[in-house]
Each structure stands twice: as structure tokens, then as C-alpha cells.
What does this fold into?
Amino acid sequence: MLALKKIAITGGLASGKTTVGQILQDHGAYVVSADAIVHSLLLENKDIQKKVISLLGEEVVDSQELNRQKIAKKVFDNLPLLDKLEKILHPQVRVEIKKKYQEASQAENYSSFIAEIPLLFETDAYNDFDKTIAVIADENACIQRFCHNNHHTKEMFINR
It folds into this structure.
């Protein structure tokens, strides 16, 4: 069995990382998203949920689930709090990506393994990959895409 090439996709907010990942998936790659893993952890991982609630308070819970919008509102205006949240989430995201790589490798029917990781260099996760694709786009186009696709504001884009 040959080792599956591990490639990271990174880039700024709303730069088109997911689009590039989709194109590669259409060409036979196994693609995983760090953002999707975070969403899954917040919904399903009880240990992560407890840590996030302990850090951010019960007000980030709605109907017994963590509310990502409330979390975002708290942390993107508070960099020390964001840093603490990332220290809870990022190690587990790396663990999950490694698990996904093992799954893809065992399946033996993918051309490559792609991980979309917005904070690739900030978390030193780049060491886990053979190659990196950096997606770069005009900032105004990113702002428009972010605001249109998510019904967010330019201020929210800047804060993130």
C-alpha cells in the first residue's frame, strides 16, 4: 500500500478554500474540513462541550446545544478568549484529521488526502502535510462572499 499524499488547503476567510477542495474531491481526493470537524466536536464531543461551556459560560447554550453564533460573538471580540478556545479545539481537530487520513488510506481508492485548514500555519499543523495549497483572493471579493453567503457584516469579517 502506497502512502496517500497529504495536502493542506489554507487561506483567508471566504477566500475559496472550500471551492478548491470541492474541485479536488471531484477529481478523486478525499477531502476533510477543519471547520466541519469543529462543528462536529461542538455538537457531539461531550468533553469538548464541557470545556467550552466552562470557558464561555452557559449563555452559549441553546436548547441543550452549543450555539456557534453565540460562541463567535463572544470570542471574535476577545482575542485572549479566542486563544483559549482554540487551545481546546485545535488539538482535537488535528487528532480527527489524522483519523480521517487513516480511513482514507485504508480505503485505497482516493488520489490524495486534502485537509482544508484555515489556521494551518498558526497552529503549526503544516508539519503534518506533504504539500500546501494557499488560496488567495481579493479582500473585497472575500468580504462580499462572506457577507452574502452567511448574512454577516463587513465588521464581522474584519473581526474574524
